[in-house]
Write a structure and sequence with these properties.
By secondary structure, the chain is α/β, with parallel strands linked by helices. The protein has helices at residues 5-15, 22-34, 37-53, 88-97, 124-132, 147-161, 185-193, and strands spanning 55-56, 63-64, 78-85, 102-106, 138-141, 166-169, 196-197.
């Protein structure tokens, strides 16, 4: 079915979002049409504000609206443990468990030769710099349990181990091929407590 152009454009914008299918995009577009003009303006302002005000933490790469994120600026966190994750969604997932009290390092992706993503295109150098500054006892590698995640984990573990720092990998209760961001809190809690050295 062909929609009128402004509606079609709205549907296409929603459909371009990761994880949003065509039917969901149409529902979202109708939801926008059901909004008052003021609600629609608030909605668009929220999108623009998020895009303008949210950036990465200068230390760990997590999302923040301040120069340093809330985790890095929390003096109660254990600075001797760094959990390495692919993106900020994993940080949110771990924080929901309320079990992890260390710091994070967001890579901003994983090594993927097939996609042309080499180690220098993600934040591995920044991780090594943090370790070189001293005080880090353990690095927990929490990349997703798929081919690219495992490749990245092995690459990082060799570099970190060479610096004399203990490296552990999550003990996954997460099925191979699944993403950490979709795991429930109990599974993630068990994964943290059951981590192993690699």
């Amino acid at each position: 079915m062909e929609y009128i152009l402004p509606f079609q454009r709205l549907v296409e914008k929603f459909a371009s979002l990761r994880g949003v299918g065509r039917k969901t995009a149409v529902r979202y577009a109708f939801a926008v049409l059901d909004m008052s003009e003021e609600e629609a303006k608030d909605f668009s302002d929220a999108i623009l504000s998020a895009k303008r005000d949210i950036h990465t933490c200068s230390i760990c790469g997590n999302l923040t609206d301040e120069p340093i994120c809330a985790v890095c600026s929390d003096e109660k966190r254990d600075g001797g443990i760094i959990c390495v994750v692919e993106d900020a969604r994993a940080v949110i997932a771990f924080e929901k468990t309320r079990e992890y009290n260390g710091l994070y390092h967001v890579l901003g992706g994983v090594i993927s030769p097939a996609k042309g993503i080499t180690p220098d295109k993600i934040r591995i150098g920044e991780l090594l710099d943090r370790i070189s500054n001293g005080g880090v006892r353990e690095v927990i590698i929490a990349t997703n349990p798929n081919v690219d995640g495992e490749t990245t984990a092995l690459y990082i573990s060799k570099l970190v181990s060479a610096k004399g720092v203990k490296v552990t990998r999550l003990a996954y209760g997460v099925p191979v091929g699944a993403d950490i961001e979709y795991a429930d809190e109990v599974t993630l809690t068990r994964a943290i407590s059951g981590r192993r050295e690699i």
